[in-house]
Amino acid sequence: MYQQFYDEVAQDASVNLKAIERRGFERSIALLEGAQASGPGTRVAVEALHFTSRLWSYLLEDLASEENGLPPELRAKLISIGIWILERAEAIRKGIQNDFQALIDINRSILLGLEDRTC
Asked: Does some domain include residue 2?
């Protein structure tokens, strides 16, 4: 009986974490789309880059954790993507790059992958 309760709580926690991750990606995408429309160097762009960098920093920390349940190969690929996201965000912040579309596209792809895993 206790094991069943524990399993249900653990499953709920996992579902809640996935929902939080989805909301994070949805917010990141919305902010990045606003930044694309407003242009680099704007307050909107600064907020989008800051939020996206924080999101991916959190994800990278989780992906590097021993407790992360994803297969090692998938974790490695997501870590590579995350590092690229952080580098691109920094390049836009510094004015080296000015296009947000790749960040939008990658975040959207990851979001779609999260949605596929929960269906």
From this structure: no
